[in-house]
């Protein structure tokens, strides 16, 4: 169940961060509310995941997947460019998350 909490925390964080871009400095009501509710849900679910998953592992996965997803959303929805160094960095993040999950005895 703790991995489901982490997955839902990541999803909520991605939704909140996407809404944060649309909140325009918290000047737009609906995206601002989505941002605040999304981050609240995300941190609550992350706290539940932390009951079973080591903090460093959970946070690495939570932030790593969030960075990759938000970069893709920024590219697709907001037409933000992803330079070669950015793509290389994202690749390293993906590799890091895979290494943590496949080879770390702490993540089990």
Automatic annotation (TrEMBL):
<dbReference type="Pfam" id="PF00893">
    <property type="entry name" value="Multi_Drug_Res"/>
</dbReference>
<dbReference type="InterPro" id="IPR000390">
    <property type="entry name" value="Small_drug/metabolite_transptr"/>
</dbReference>
<feature type="transmembrane region" description="Helical">
    <location>
        <begin position="83"/>
        <end position="103"/>
    </location>
</feature>
<comment type="similarity">
    <text>Belongs to the drug/metabolite transporter (DMT) superfamily. Small multidrug resistance (SMR) (TC 2.A.7.1) family.</text>
</comment>
<dbReference type="GO" id="GO:0005886">
    <property type="term" value="C:plasma membrane"/>
</dbReference>
<keyword id="KW-1133">Transmembrane helix</keyword>
<dbReference type="InterPro" id="IPR045324">
    <property type="entry name" value="Small_multidrug_res"/>
</dbReference>
<keyword id="KW-0813">Transport</keyword>
<dbReference type="InterPro" id="IPR037185">
    <property type="entry name" value="EmrE-like"/>
</dbReference>
<feature type="transmembrane region" description="Helical">
    <location>
        <begin position="29"/>
        <end position="50"/>
    </location>
</feature>
<protein>
    <submittedName>
        <fullName>Multidrug efflux SMR transporter</fullName>
    </submittedName>
</protein>
<keyword id="KW-1003">Cell membrane</keyword>
<keyword id="KW-0812">Transmembrane</keyword>
<dbReference type="GO" id="GO:0022857">
    <property type="term" value="F:transmembrane transporter activity"/>
</dbReference>
<keyword id="KW-0472">Membrane</keyword>
<feature type="transmembrane region" description="Helical">
    <location>
        <begin position="57"/>
        <end position="77"/>
    </location>
</feature>
<dbReference type="GO" id="GO:1990961">
    <property type="term" value="P:xenobiotic detoxification by transmembrane export across the plasma membrane"/>
</dbReference>
